[in-house]
Hints:
Strand content: 25-35%
Number of helices: 15
Organism: Crateriforma conspicua
Oligomer: single chain
Keywords: Membrane, Transmembrane, Transmembrane helix
Distance between the termini: 52 Å
Protein name: Putative glutamine amidotransferase domain-containing protein
Transmembrane segments: 12-31, 724-743
CATH architecture of the largest domain: 3-Layer(aba) Sandwich
CATH topology of the largest domain: Rossmann fold
Number of strands: 36
CATH superfamily of the largest domain: Class I glutamine amidotransferase (GATase) domain
Number of domains: 5
Amino acid sequence: MTRWQIDPLFDSSWLALLVAVVVALVLLMITPAMSDRRRFRTLLGLRSLAAGCLLLVLLGPSWVRVDQQPSESSLVIAMDTSQSMSLSDGDATSRWDIQRDVVQSLINQLETVSERLQIIPLTYASTAETKNSDPATLIDQLSPVGRRTDLASPIRWTLQSANRQSIEGLILIGDGANTVGPEAASTGGAALSADQAASVMDSIGLPLWTIPIGPASLNDQRRDVAVSGLPESFRLFAGTQFDLRFELESRGLAGTEIPVRLRWIDSQGNATDAAVRRIVSESAISRTPVQIPVDTPTPGSYRLEVQADLMPGETVRPNNTQVAFVDVMPGGGRIYYLEGQPREEQQFLRRALRFPDLDLDYQWIPADSRSRWPVSLGDDLTADSHDVFIIGDLEASAVGNKQWQSLTDAVAGGAGLVMLGGMQTLSAGGYQDTPLAGVLPVDLSRIGNADIPGPLTLRPSIRHPITTIDSAQQTTWAQLPPLNGASNLGTPRSAPGVQTLLESTDGNPLLVVGEYGRGRVAVLGIDETFRWHRYGFQNFHRRFWRQLVLWLLARDGDSGEDIQLNMTARRFSDDAPAGFTAIIPPPLSSRDDWTVQAVADDGSVTPLTFDRQSSQDEGRLRLEGQLPTSLAAGIYQLRVTGGSTSEPTNDASLGFEVLQDIAELSRSSADPVLMRQLAGLTRQSGGQSFGIDQTDELVDLIRRSRQRNVATIVQKNRLGDGPISGWIMYLLFAAALGSEWILRRRWGMV
């Protein structure tokens, strides 16, 4: 519709007319006297033209056109770029190909809707991102590589954009498989979930149109096998057997036999088959606990790989295998414990040494059997029968020198021996007259029978693997309950290898160790370590006795003298990397050239950053850091090195695995129900869900919505406002007055 109207200066026609009349009167009435009527009319005409131009400008005649057009708006099309879109939609066509066809169909049909509708292409996986590209060609430039799906991310992006521009609505395309929760999608605070964000869209009048892709369930079609529940690491002893436990999950393989293979892989990458089992899946969806006895290999560091064979029709392969990291130490020890009095100490000592790798034989020789002394112990005191010997509160005559000589020979050949304090042991038990007198690290002839009265508080004399107790409670020796007394050990021998490890606060030696031949020997002057257990220090009690036995076995490498390397996890995905800690004891801690690296199986090295913390009390150095998120999936060694990397002087390593993130692929079923529910939450605003073959209906709905959402467009052309009409009026006005002045000058009137 068009019309003419007057838009006078100051919005007042009378004021504009009055100003124009005044100006016209001034121009017309103030004229010089002249007799030539022709010249007079010429000057009057020029002045009238100038007055007319001024009058037109003041009155402001305008040409107005009023149109009804759809308002300018933007339509967001969100495309799913997560890995699950690469899966098949029940046939040979992938969901990604279907999405490509849907997007191209939408773009072609939307071209006919309105020129004032801008298409905003949006991609989403774990986050939503807009792309500066032609929507029709963008889908061909993308690929489904996202490892998580956050359905809320495109909805939240649309809500944020609605604050800056007019949004027609959101078309959400995808399989609806949401694998990210709102707490993971936002690091800056609580984020709206998908249903919450859809409700907010409805409250501000924005529709959500969804196009689900993929079937709701593929339980009858998809096949998958997964190994799960395998512990991350083991610490075992050579020559033993342990039960390996894990679970085998299967889907779509009811009644099918699934081979499961176990392999040892050493530090050089050499693989050895350990076992094969064939597990039959009992139902379409099955979780079967598996237990397999496994023999440990020779000492060393290994990976124990549990792998289920790839079954026909499987699409997800990484979950068929799980790896555990195993440290195999030299085999366990055989302990022979001789006791004369059934005291409390022996009960708690035997309980403390209950470990899978330690086999303890207990022999009690009661005092009322004195008439049959010496008791024959057969071959029990020989190196062929046992590795460590513990002598409790037992008189020497109960066994006899002949058998004590057998024990002496066993220690000289490499066995371990510890003698405990008590009423009938050491000098009080007559051992100074036996072959063992020359084996022990104390001089029994100079001890006497006097005991050390209590209460006694123990303290370490030097740092040693036996007395460095890394218990869970971080207990110190000073925290242990005082003891009621101890046997007097006198003065330790002056011999190589003899050391006092524990003493009382008065300086009396209470634990002395040494060597005899190829064996290790210890004398412990106390017989009340059970009090530690009773007063709540059970872990400390067990650790002390284990470390003492391991030292006697010469297998104390796990007691803290070497570099201690730990990780918060040994298997993890790259988006949740583990932390690491290296504790370096003195004197190694004095070095300042330590490096930490992640070494891949192919030999590639990734330097790692870490913080250094020194312990002034114990002289230990602590290196602490976090693995980066840039590590690709695979097997690695965490290596701590002192010295140059080419010629390290000290190093330690620990294996770990970066897992391939298969959350998108393992959850292959689409969730069209969720997509329809999200659209239904915006029903009041026109939200609706459509099938992949209903894009024409969606475009018709958008077209009708555009027709309802119109804006009144008013086009007004006022005389003098535009550059063309303004210049024309100015030139006419200036030409009229200029010509009038030139003529008057020529005619001699100026």
